[in-house]
C-alpha cells in the first residue's frame, strides 16, 4: 500500500474510518456500547478511557489532519484546553499566556489557577520578545492563540516554539480559528495543538466537542489526567463529528474565499472604520500570516464609523444572524463587548483593543452577493437613523 501522506480532502473523507465488516456499508458503523468483553487484558475499552472504536477512529483522522502522532477527542473545547494545560502543570509551576485569548481560557486562568498553586503571566504584546520576557525559572508552558479572537492578531509560531525549546518549555496553541485546513502548528515546532471542534470541525452549529493532538508521549500524559477528569465525548457525537469532518476541507475553503471577499468589500466601504482580517494587505501581520497559514480563515471583525449605531446594525441584519458561536456554514455576527468578552470588563477590553462598536463576523458559505446585500440594507437603516436623530 502507498504510505505517502494523503491530501487534505482524502484525509477528511477516509482516514480512520471504521470498516463495516458485516454489511460493507459505506460509512463507519456507530458503536454505542459502553461495555466490551475482556478479550485482551491490555485493551479495556470504555468511553471514558477514550478508546471505543469510534473514538479511536476519529482520533486517527484528527492526528492525520494536524501531522501529529496521536489525538484525543473531548466533550468540549474547554475540556480539551483545561485538561491539556493542567496535564503539564503542578503546584509551584508557572504558565505564560498570550494576552488576547478566547474568553473561556482567560477565565480558566484567572478564576481557577490560583487555587491549584499555579501562577500565570499574560504577555503585554504579541511579539516573541513579549513572551520571552515573561519566562521564569518555573515556567512550564507557553500558551498561544493565532489568529486570535476577536481581532485576528497573528502570533509567530516558529519564533515562540524556538524560544520555548531553548528554555525547555512546552508550547500549546488554540488552533480553533484557523482549523487544521488553514494552519498546522506542529510543522512550526508547536508541541500541543488544541481545537474547539464545536467550530470548524463540526461546522454546522450542532456539535459541542474538543480535540487535542501532539506526540504519542505528550498525548499519553494528557490521557492520564483526561481519564480522571472524565471529559470524554459520547460516541454518537463522535460519529457525527466524523461525518462533519468529511466536508471540512470544502467548507473551510469556501469560507476562506467568502471571508476574503467580505473583508475587501468592507475595507473599501465609506461606513466602515476598520477591518481586521489577516488576508488583507493592510493587516499588520499579513506577511507572517501568509508564511504560516495555508488560508486566512473565515473569521474577521470590523468597526462601523463611530456615529453609526453598531447594535442597531446587528439587529437590522436579516440573513446574517446574531449568534454566540461561530464557524458554522451560516454567517453570524456578534458584539464581543456584549457577549464573548463581556466578563473581561471595560479596562481589559480597552487594553486588548476591543472597542464597544466592534463586530465579529463568522463568514459562512452563502453566496457573497446575498451577504453584501444584507449588510447594505442594514447600513441603510443605520444611516437613516443618524439623520433623523440629529434633527
Ligand atoms: C469556542 C472556543 C473555545 C471553547 O470551545 P467550547 O467547545 O465552547 O468549549 C476555545 N477556543 C476558541 C478559540 C473558541 O472559539
Automatic annotation (TrEMBL):
Example GO CC term: the record gives: cytoplasm
KW Cell membrane (keyword) present: no
- Give the UniProt record's GO annotations in the biological process aspect: methionine biosynthetic process; transsulfuration
What PROSITE patterns has UniProt attached to this entry? CYS_MET_METAB_PP
Record InterPro entries: Cys/Met-Metab_PyrdxlP-dep_enz (IPR000277), Cys_met_metab_PP (IPR054542), PyrdxlP-dep_Trfase (IPR015424), PyrdxlP-dep_Trfase_major (IPR015421), PyrdxlP-dep_Trfase_small (IPR015422)
Q: Which UniProt keywords apply?
A: Pyridoxal phosphate, Transferase
Q: Which SUPFAM superfamilies match?
A: PLP-dependent transferases (SSF53383)
- Taxonomically, which superkingdom? Bacteria
Family statement = Belongs to the trans-sulfuration enzymes family.
State what protein this is by name: PLP-dependent transferase
Q: What is the lineage of its organism?
A: Bacteria, Pseudomonadati, Bacteroidota, Flavobacteriia, Flavobacteriales
Amino acid at each position: 500500500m502507498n504510505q505517502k501522506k494523503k491530501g487534505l480532502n482524502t484525509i477528511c473523507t477516509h482516514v480512520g474510518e471504521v470498516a463495516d465488516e458485516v454489511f460493507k456499508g459505506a460509512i463507519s458503523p456507530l458503536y454505542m456500547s459502553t461495555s466490551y468483553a475482556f478479550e485482551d487484558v491490555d485493551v479495556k475499552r470504555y468511553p471514558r478511557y477514550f478508546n471505543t472504536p469510534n473514538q479511536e477512529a476519529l482520533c486517527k483522522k484528527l492526528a492525520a489532519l494536524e501531522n501529529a502522532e496521536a489525538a484525543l477527542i473531548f466533550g468540549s473545547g474547554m475540556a480539551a484546553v483545561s485538561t491539556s494545560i493542567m496535564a503539564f502543570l503542578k503546584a509551584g509551576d508557572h504558565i505564560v499566556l498570550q494576552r488576547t485569548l478566547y474568553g473561556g481560557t482567560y477565565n480558566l486562568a484567572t478564576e481557577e489557577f490560583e487555587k491549584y498553586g499555579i501562577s500565570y503571566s499574560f504577555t503585554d504584546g504579541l511579539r516573541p520578545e513579549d513572551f520571552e520576557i515573561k519566562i521564569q525559572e518555573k515556567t512550564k508552558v507557553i500558551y498561544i492563540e493565532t489568529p486570535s479572537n476577536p481581532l485576528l492578531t497573528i502570533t509567530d509560531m516558529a519564533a515562540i516554539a524556538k524560544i520555548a525549546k531553548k528554555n525547555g518549555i512546552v508550547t500549546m496553541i488554540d488552533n480553533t480559528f484557523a482549523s487544521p485546513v488553514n494552519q498546522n502548528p506542529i510543522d512550526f515546532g508547536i508541541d500541543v495543538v488544541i481545537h474547539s471542534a464545536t467550530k470548524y470541525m463540526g461546522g454546522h452549529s450542532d456539535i459541542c466537542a474538543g480535540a487535542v493532538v501532539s506526540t504519542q508521549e505528550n498525548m499519553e500524559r494528557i490521557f492520564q489526567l483526561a481519564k480522571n477528569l472524565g471529559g470524554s465525548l459520547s460516541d454518537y457525537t463522535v460519529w457525527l463529528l466524523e461525518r462533519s469532518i468529511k466536508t471540512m476541507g470544502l467548507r473551510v475553503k469556501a469560507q476562506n474565499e467568502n471571508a476574503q471577499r467580505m473583508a475587501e468589500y468592507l475595507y473599501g466601504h465609506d461606513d466602515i472604520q476598520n477591518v481586521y482580517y489577516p488576508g488583507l494587505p493592510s493587516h499588520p501581520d499579513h506577511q507572517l500570516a501568509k508564511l504560516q497559514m495555508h488560508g486566512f480563515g473565515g473569521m474577521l471583525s470590523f468597526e462601523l464609523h463611530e456615529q453609526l449605531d453598531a447594535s442597531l446594525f446587528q439587529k437590522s441584519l436579516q440573513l446574517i444572524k446574531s449568534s454566540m458561536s461561530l464557524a458554522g456554514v451560516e454567517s453570524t455576527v456578534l458584539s464581543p463587548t456584549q457577549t464573548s468578552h463581556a466578563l473581561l470588563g471595560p479596562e481589559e477590553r480597552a487594553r486588548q483593543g476591543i472597542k464597544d462598536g466592534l463586530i465579529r463576523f463568522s463568514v459562512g458559505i452563502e453566496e457573497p452577493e446575498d451577504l453584501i446585500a444584507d449588510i447594505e440594507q442594514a447600513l441603510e437603516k443605520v444611516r437613516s437613523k443618524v439623520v433623523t436623530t440629529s434633527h
